[in-house]
Amino acid sequence: MTIGKIIDGKAFAAGLRDKVAEGVAAFAAQAGRKPGLAVVLVGEDPASAVYVRNKGKMTVATGMESYEFKRPASIGADDLLDLIEELNHDDRVDGILVQLPLPAHIDESAVLAAIDPAKDVDGFHVVNAGKLATGQEALVPCTPLGCIMLLKDELGDLTGLEAVVVGRSNIVGKPMAQLLLAESCTVTIAHSRTRDIASIVHRADIVVAAVGRAEMVKGEWIKPGATVIDVGINRVADTEDGKGRIVGDVATAEALAHVRAITPVPGGVGPMTIAVLLRNTLVAAHARAGLAKPDGL
Length: 297
Ligand code: NDP
Fold this sequence. Notes:
The protein is α/β, with parallel strands linked by helices. Helix content is 40%, strand content 15%. It contains ten helices and eleven strands. NADPH dihydro-nicotinamide-adenine-dinucleotide phosphate binds at residues 143, 166-169, 171-173, 190-194, 197, 210-213, 231-234, 269-270, 273.
């Protein structure tokens, strides 16, 4: 039995952060200032606080300025919109990221729509989604952009390959499908209403699973030699110490007997997301300063 390759997303992300750091130094020399990323955290959600702390540390490690804005869960929608407006007009800030989810009383889509599309480093603004869909230069959501980087690194030219994306969210599934289409793949999007999902996945040369269901994609669904990108992050409570473990949307151990290559969970797509966020911030800084997009990013 042959065993597929495990794609090392952690190492790829570290390489990408190194390239970003080089680009930051070159930008600072040209523009006379560092690129800046502002992260807005509303409320006390511990997981969100950890993400924001990590983002801040990595932003500083690449040589960029990191600005953190912590607000209580009780903040009014108007006050949050005022903060976004301030950041939109702050010249030191090239990227604005609002950590999701927001408290229930705040309309998430109104907050995302208030971000200047030129500073929308998460790529969630409808202007950026529309540009991506129509093949224009856009700020693209970090997780799917990270997935396409891993795929191109593994497979080279993706032209003509059959790709199946499982999941149709605005932050992963839909932009992922657009990116694969832009690479001239033949793309199918599967979701919770899809019939006979196993046989649809079995057609694919590339499978991207972004569902949020532990090990839903079974090994026997995978066509021999396919490349699998597992976006899912699911906690399962089946360990003896009661701490549980993190698994993806793909049954990795089974899949390894079928795949050419697969991203592990953890250590696959996860580390790419923050690295691409830093990349997007550097790209936004160049565009705002009227400079050409840095090479190799
Ligand atoms: P959403 O919950 O927004 O979307 C899930 C999608 O999966 C929906 O389109 C849903 O279909 C589909 N789905 C649900 N059940 C099934 C099923 N049984 N069969 C087929 N499709 C199904 O999740 P996200 O897109 O935000 O995230 C997906 C996963 O990726 C999560 O585990 C999340 O934690 C992880 N993630 C990881 C990131 C990283 O950095 N590695 C970043 C972002 C997300 P329908 O639309 O019909 O309801």
